[in-house]
Every structure is written in structure tokens, then in C-alpha cells.
């Protein structure tokens, strides 16, 4: 089922949670709503589910306006951040809930319900826990029960609110891949909310970056990472270094350049991977500047070098141990840093 | 008993690695407090009644007046507790879920039966249902005379027990996880199905606790009932009143025997309800 959101706004008291959002999700896609807390991503998810009502704007499922349909009529599966399992019911009954509350005419009989629930539990690899109660399960197991419960009513759209938010990092990684495979095998449309960039990058077909109730950028993980629409997206997706500078004669200047007369503040964001350390100034590199090594940190595959620039700003550069001799980089040593100019993002700067 | 408690607390103490300071002092104060206020007086009562021979015991407890008093007390208490169970839950629901004008006043009114001297309640209700009373003047011509009747006692007990169910169910509703209802909605449940299958089952422990407390309170209620019941032996005489009557007749033994049986009844009841709650929690995996 395709989802089309047109000019949707939502206000809570004086707080504008969503400001004129438009978004379309084609059938079968796995979309991540990514943003810091308070960016309105969960609100948008709840509007799609029908748990909240938009102040204005329209949502279409398969081209059909569903504004007047309640949450129970929309046929969406919703997985809550804290699972919202019914703790007085066994795992089996939790999953069977959606089947048991169907109106008499379309309800399956007990044997069919049993078969279907067990099939779902096998799908989430929890059939051996059918008789347990939620309190007896681990976080990851609860998460999968919640998912099985949502899938029992055969939703055309699956909505997940921070699905892995409350789990350990190693279980998260495992479940991510599993969820992606599940999505592909079911052929449904899924939207999930997250504030974890890695999670969105790894799982989603498309990423919608949100901030302050607005969509900042929408695109594939590659687009969002390599062609960020603005400084916010660049800064939010991945680590960045922040440099303060001034605008002078229609040019942004950073560092020790003399400041004369009136100048506007400007900020530049540069990824640690877009800078290079050189031991002497005559090595290649455009417009290098001087810096002092503060310390080295190991980050698994690469090494992060923390430096202080000659004008006193602290920043990080990623170094590939295979390309550079780490023994040369001793704390306190003076080095030169070059920047790939096309990977610099400026904020509040217009020429 | 006390020795057993201390032993029990000691094992608890060793099993947890961290505890706040002051455990010894606090436990000592707690045990002393409970002993002086509850255990010792009750023990004296039980010991006094234990001096009675089996023959005397049977004679006292099978006395028609005593049997009748027990029957009146227990039956009115059960009915009053059940009425409070239904309507108390309803009031708690409305009170926790909705905002309405005068909610704060209502809040104070709910607690009023806790605070009001029970004699005041008794006099007020009796005046209300008397021949010239506000309600009595309409009810008595219809042949409904509540004063000096079984139903009159029940009404007084409903009044006295009202806050218990409301005040135990309300906090549970206040803290109720809204996501559970939302989950039920997205799974296709109607509002009625959501209430019956999701909300109510989670309220049952609180409703049960509240109803038990109301029932226990009704069993011992004296002040409000004596005015409205008329205290007719074999008809509307309640157990607490019978105890007082026996004491006034210097029949201390009779009074303590009846009192001890009341104590046993209340204790067994509370034990059973706690047992049910514990079993329920254990079944849900919330208790080891």
C-alpha cells in the first residue's frame, strides 16, 4: 500500500509538532523517519496510524483519503517503543488478540487462530515461548512478540516507533537485519522512527531526515550521506568538526586571517574523514593549516586523532592505519592539515 | 511470631547486596510499633477467649441471637462491598478519565466517609429515611421503610465503605499505560472490547483489594449502623453491637469469644484475598 501525506500540520497547545509536511511512500518500501528528539517523527507516525488527528492536511492510502477512518479501520500494524504488550495475557493470547476481536462474521475459528498464531510465532522464532507471559521474556523477545501481534491482522502498512530503542546494542544489530529480511519477505510498506543514524542507514530504502516538525531531506541513504541538502543534515548524519569563521569580502575565512571591519559569523562543518594530516607543509593538499596533536583514540577500524588548530579550535581527523604510520603521530607534534574543499558545509553563509 | 518475622527479615537482608542505612533501627521500630498496636492486644484477646471450654464456646456461638447477628453482619457487609465494587469502580473510572466541572469538590466528597465521624453518618441517614425525612416522606408511603431494616444497615455500610474501592482503583487508572489502549485500537478492538479485554483485567487486582478492604471495614462498622438498624435482637442486631451489649452486661467471656471469632473471620478473609493476588501475580510471571 502506498502512503501519501499532503500538507499535514499538527499543533500541541502552542508547540507546532509538524509544520506542513508532505511525503510519499511507494508500496513495499522501508522508510526511516530520522531526526533528533522533538523533531516530530513519532507524531507523524501516529498520524499515519490514526492514533492522533492532524490539524490540517490529508493522508492517502493507495490514493484513498483516510482522514475519516479511525485507527481500527485503517489496518495498520503499529509496534510501540515500549512494546505495549498485554501483561495479563500469554504470548499466544497477545498475538491472537487482533484475531479474536474481529467481528463475528469475519472471525476465524479457534483451530485456525491457533494455527495462524503459531505460524507467526515461528516466524519470529518464539513458538517455544507461546505459554509464557510478557514479564518472563527478555527485551528482544518482547519486541518480537509485539511485532508478531501487529502482523497477525495482516496489515498493509507496518509502523514502528523506535523499534530497537530499548535494546542492547548487539541485539539491536541482530534484530535490524532480521527485520529488514522480514519486511522483504512480507512485501508490505514499512515506516520506522529512529534517532539512530546507523540504524536508518543500514535498514532503510529511503531516509526522511526531520527537524523541528519539518522534513530537511528525503532520499536514499547514499544521497543523504553524500549529498546532504544542508548543514543540519550533514551535521546530523555522521560525525563532524565545527569551525567558527567570519565572512569577509564575500568569502568565508577561518583561522588566523586578520579580521578587519564588519564581519558576519559563519560556521563550517567538516567530516573527520574529509581531512588529511601531513607531516610537512610541502606535501600535497589545498590550503593546509597548522595544528598540534592532542591525543589518539582507537575506533576499531580507523584511528581518530584529536588536534588543536593553530587558532585554538579542537577537531578530529580520521586516519587509516594502513595509509599512515601511527608512530609518527605523537601527542604534542606540530602537523599540517588539508581539507577536501568540496566536503565543507557552511551555515548562515550566503554569497 | 515476632521471632519468625525477625528471622524472615534477616534472610531477606542477606539476599540483597545493597540496602539503605538504618535498616536495623527502622526494622526494630516497625516491629515494636506493630507489636504494641496490633499483635499484643489481639493476642491478649485470643488468650482470654482461650480459657473458655469447648462446651461453653459452642454454647456462646450457637446462641440464636449470636448466630443471627453474624448472619446480619456478614450478609449486609457482602452486599455493601459488592455494591461498592461495581459503583466504586465506575466512579473511579469517571474520576480518573474525565475532567468535569466541580471535580475538585467531588474529590473531597469521595474522602468524606473516611473523615466523618460514623455517628454523624448514622444520624444523618436515619433522619433522611425517617417518616418526616427528605427521602422517607416519599419512600414510606410506597411501603419502603429503610430505617430499622436490613437494607438500612446495608445503605449505611455502602456509605462507609465507598472510598475504599474508589481510592484503590483510581491510582491504577491514573497510571494506566495509554499505549495499551492504542495497541488494542490498532489491532481492531472496539472501545468495549478494549475495556473488557485489556483495561478491566488489569484493574481486577485493585478492584479486589478495594472490595476486600471495604468488606473488612463493613464487618467492624458500628457507629453508623446502630442508629439506622434499630438494634432489634434476632433481626437487625449486628455483631459489634452484640459485643458492646455483652460488655455492658459484664459478660466479658462472651464478648471476647465473639470478638475472637470476628478476628478469625477477618484474618482468614484477608489471607485468602492476598493469596489469590499472589497466585495471580505468580501466574503472570511477576513473582518468583
Radius of gyration of chain A: 25 Å
> How many E strands of chain A?
19
The first-level CATH class name of chain B: Mainly Alpha
Q: From the coordinates shown, what is the CATH architecture of chain B? A: Orthogonal Bundle
CATH fold-level name of chain B: MetI-like fold
Report low-confidence residues of chain B grouped into runs of 5 or more: 1-6
Shape of chain A: elongated
- Give the overall silhouette of chain B: globular
| Domains of chain B (count) | 1
Q: Name the CATH homologous superfamily of chain B.
A: MetI-like
Sum up the structure in keywords.
heterodimer, A: alpha+beta, Rossmann fold, OB fold (Dihydrolipoamide Acetyltransferase, E2P), 2 domains, 6-stranded mixed β-sheet, 5-stranded antiparallel β-sheet, 9 helices, 25% helix, B: MetI-like fold
Account of the 3D structure:
The complex is a heterodimer of chains A (351) and B (288). By secondary structure, chain A is α+β, with helices and mostly antiparallel strands. Chain A folds into 2 domains: 3-236, P-loop containing nucleotide triphosphate hydrolases (Rossmann fold); 241-347, OB fold (Dihydrolipoamide Acetyltransferase, E2P) (Beta Barrel), CATH 2.40.50. Chain A has 9 helices and 19 strands. Chain A has a 6-stranded mixed β-sheet, sandwiched between helices. In chain A, strands 14-18-15-16-17 form a 5-stranded antiparallel β-sheet, with no helix packed on it. In chain A, helix 3 (91-100) packs across helix 4 (110-123), helix 3 runs parallel beside helix 5 (139-152) and helix 4 (110-123) packs across helix 5 (139-152). The radius of gyration of chain A is 25 Å and the shape is elongated. The two termini of chain A are 44 Å apart. The model of chain A is unreliable at 257-261 (pLDDT under 50). Chain B has 288 residues and is mostly helical. Chain B has a single domain, classed as MetI-like (MetI-like fold, Orthogonal Bundle). Chain B is built from 13 helices and no strands. Chain B has helices at 2-15, 23-50, 54-62, 64-97, 103-115, 118-129, 136-139, 150-174, 178-186, 191-220, 223-229, 239-248, 252-283. In chain B, helix 4 (64-97) packs antiparallel against helix 10, helix 10 runs antiparallel to helix 13 and helix 12 (239-248) packs antiparallel against helix 13. Chain B is globular. The A-B interface holds A 49-51, 70-72, 74, 76-78, 80, 82, 84, 86-88, 97-98, 100-102, 132-136, 149-150, 152-153 and B 177, 179-180, 182-190, 193, 197-198, 201-202, 283-286.
